[in-house]
Amino acid sequence: MPPPVQIDGCDTFSKLFRQNCKKFGDRTAIREKDFGIWEEFSWLDYYACARRVGCSLMALGYRKGDVAAIISEDNKEWVFADLGIQCIGATTHGLYPTLQEKQVAYQLNDSGAKVLFVEDEEQLDKYLGVEDQLDHLEKVIVFDMEGLRSFQHDKVIGWEEFLALSDAKIEELSVEFERRIDGGDPEDIATLIYTSGTTGAPKGAAMSHRFSWPSRIITPNCRLGRMTKF
To answer: Which PROSITE patterns match (predicted)?
Structure first.
């Protein structure tokens, strides 16, 4: 067994995230430029958004070890989803937004993701092109619904509609959210990262909380669009 690894007394990324959100409070955690104006989110905002994502995933029946995938450019929703996924003991599967339909289908089938977050109509189209190959996907959540307001699909919902899934039981689910962070283990799988596939089919590298520390350090500030990858 590898020696224990802790940062500031925390042995999982989720615990460190929660601790830093409480520590930094109203200080700015994320800035995103929207129509030329920087929009700021505090550490408490960051935690609240991640918690709401986690609670909505639990409302969909997400359990420890389940996988949720994200295909998007850098944006605030990406990191909110990523942290919400990990805080409930689930695993984030990040896909490059440059992947083509067949590549997306292969990776999603391999990871067994039950939920897919997509950035916009362009990324949603990749799912729609191969949806007959992805029966295991239960929901597809679109961050940016521009151009999709009248779109109807049994599995596809917008970001705000997804977040509202937890509203009816938010107090109960919030308690469970905290319990899952407390119960996190360093050997839990935090992230799946796929190889390029240049010498064969892409392979998923499973990164535990213990071994994902070097590439996932929480910084006091980041600017989305030129964001420090955690």
So the answer is: AMP_BINDING (PS00455)
